[in-house]
Amino acid sequence: MQEVGADHRTLERTFARAVAAHNEGLDEEALKLFKQVLALEPRLPEPRLEVALILLRCGELEEADAQAREALAHLEKGWRALDTLSDDQLMAHGCNLLAEIIKERIATGEILHADPGILRKLWREAEQLVERAARLDPDNQDIMHNYFGFRGSRDRGPAG
Questions:
Q1: Residue-wise pLDDT tens digits, 101-110
Q2: pTM of the entire structure?
Q3: One domain, residues 5 and 73
Q4: Residue among 111, 142, 113 nearest 125 (CA)
Q5: In terms of CB atoms within 10 Å, which of 68, 90, 92, 152 comes out highest?
Q6: Do residues 76 and 119 both lie within one domain?
Q7: pLDDT, position 154
Q8: Nearest 5°: CA angle at 47, between 4 and 96?
Q9: Are residues 28 and 90 in the same domain?
């Protein structure tokens, strides 16, 4: 875990408040607090993944996609805030989340009018992300459910 530049105690308190708000279903408050954490230390992947998850639930798919991709980039560089999950588990969570975001972007028609080649490319990217997540954390039931869902639809690909 790389050391963060901002005041660690402030980060911890704000992150804990954000998690509590998120757990209570207060997504708007949680989003505000997670963004405060990121303003203090933008390289932390955990709050960025939480932001991506909230944005996915709110239907803000393009921004959710960007946040998840940035979180994965920081994870690849070794940035971490917490040690509650192993590196593999956290990377698997991020890969699975980005795959879900991509799948939702395709399913909701956000990119419905895209070139079929682009749709296939996005579908393949999501499939590869889920495969990576399944390799990294094969004991995670959510990931494995998503993995087998992609495997079952491999021949069909995205609708479109």
A1: 999 998 887 6
A2: 0.85
A3: yes
A4: 111
A5: 68
A6: no
A7: 54
A8: 120
A9: no
Residue 35, domain CATH: 1.25.40.10
Which of 56, 82, 108 finishes a domain? Answer: 82
- Count of CB atoms within 10 A of residue 141's CB? 8
Q: The tokens of 100 are what?
A: 């879900």
User: Which two tokens mark 50?
Assistant: 């939480």
Give residue-wise pLDDT tens across range 73-102: 999 999 987 777 899 999 999 999 999 999
The span from the CA of 138 to the CA of 131, in Å, is: 10
Asked whether residue 1 carries a pLDDT value surpassing 60, the answer given is no
Can you state the angle between helices 87-107 and 45-57, rounded to 10 degrees? 30
Q: What is the DSSP string of 140-160?
A: -HHHHHHHHHHHHTTTT-S--
